[in-house]
């Protein structure tokens, strides 16, 4: 099964099970032979929304169609699409459609439709992606970490605040001084430990490559030996990094025989002004 086919199969699975109240990311990921974390990560990179947001938007789109085209009771429609009370349904419905369910039934305004996703291959190539593949032994990073729930998209909203905190409290400067490993710069390290998978938890480190003892107040993490694909990122943060992630998953992986290995992924930030239009950074992804 190709990369594009597997993602489309997962989307088809979601669509066929939208009425399953207990539909989970684990079930969806299993349909495309992926881990829950990497499916959620790939999906959010490509679509800019979480899996949970997609399911909620699609359910509310179908609920609106039921309100307009059937005589079913509003409370029955609420239960059908996974809402335990009419009040919770009305609140979610108004947030998406800017109308109450009763106003939608009376056709008092326009409804907002989120259509079924279809993965399409788009021919690119005018702008090349610069990358290299290396094999590297395990190495140590030291830094600070926070744990996030990736199922509800907490990582997407909270990690920028983590970076802000690290810059404001002096930790970033401390890490710059500790950087004596092979990789130069400050690292954003994304990991999912085996014991955290069931709870949908991921760790995000802000760290640096360091040889030697771990200083007090700082934690350490061993990055496993891997085959890495390293992508160059050129441009101001955060847009250049976000755009490159999207190109990696929408262009590079579909065009190459590799898959993410599922271990720690790195963003490498050089010690320069990240707002410069020619700022240089890198993305490291372990592959198999």
Structure description:
It is a single chain. With 288 residues, the protein is α+β, with helices and mostly antiparallel strands. The chain folds into 2 domains: 3-105, Homeodomain-like (Arc Repressor Mutant, subunit A), CATH 1.10.10.60; 131-286, Regulatory factor, effector binding domain (Multidrug-efflux Transporter 1 Regulator Bmrr, Chain A, Alpha-Beta Barrel), CATH 3.20.80.10. It has 10 helices and 8 strands. It has helices spanning 3-16, 25-31, 36-47, 51-69, 74-80, 86-97, 101-105, 154-168, 171-178, 239-255, and strands at residues 131-136, 139-149, 186-191, 201-209, 219-223, 226-234, 265-269, 280-286. Strands 1-6-8-7-3-4-2-5 form an 8-stranded antiparallel beta sheet. Helix 1 packs across helix 2 (25-31), helix 2 (25-31) crosses helix 3 and helix 5 (74-80) crosses helix 6 (86-97). The longest helix is centred in the N-terminal third of the chain and has 19 residues, at 51-69. The model has no long low-confidence stretch (mean pLDDT 90).
């Amino acid at each position: 099964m190709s990369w594009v086919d597997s993602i489309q199969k997962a989307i088809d699975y979601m669509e066929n099970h939208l009425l399953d109240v207990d539909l989970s990311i684990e079930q969806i990921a299993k349909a495309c032979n992926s881990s829950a974390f990497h499916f959620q990560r790939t999906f959010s990179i490509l679509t800019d929304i979480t899996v949970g947001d997609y399911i909620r938007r699609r359910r509310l789109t179908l609920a609106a169609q039921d309100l307009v085209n059937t005589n079913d009771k509003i409370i029955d429609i609420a239960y059908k699409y996974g809402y335990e009370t009419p009040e919770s349904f009305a609140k979610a419905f108004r947030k998406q459609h800017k109308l109450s369910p009763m106003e939608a039934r009376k056709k008092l305004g326009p409804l907002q439709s989120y259509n079924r996703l279809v993965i399409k291959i788009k021919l690119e190539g005018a702008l090349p992606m610069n990358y290299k593949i290396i094999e590297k032994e395990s190495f140590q990073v030291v830094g600070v970490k926070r744990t996030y729930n990736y199922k509800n998209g907490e990582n997407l909203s909270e990690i920028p605040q983590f970076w802000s905190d690290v810059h404001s409290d002096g930790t970033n400067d401390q890490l710059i001084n500790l950087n004596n490993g092979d990789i130069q710069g400050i690292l954003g390290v994304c990991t999912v430990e085996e014991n955290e998978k069931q709870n949908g938890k991921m760790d995000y480190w802000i760290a640096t490559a360091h040889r030697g003892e771990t200083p007090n107040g700082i934690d350490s993490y061993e990055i496993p030996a891997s085959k890495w694909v390293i992508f160059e990122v050129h441009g101001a943060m955060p847009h250049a990094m976000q755009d490159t992630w999207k190109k990696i998953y929408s262009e590079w992986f579909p065009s190459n025989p590799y898959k993410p290995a599922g271990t720690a992924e790195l963003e490498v930030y050089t010690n320069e002004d990240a707002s410069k239009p020619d700022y240089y950074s890198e993305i490291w992804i372990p592959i198999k």
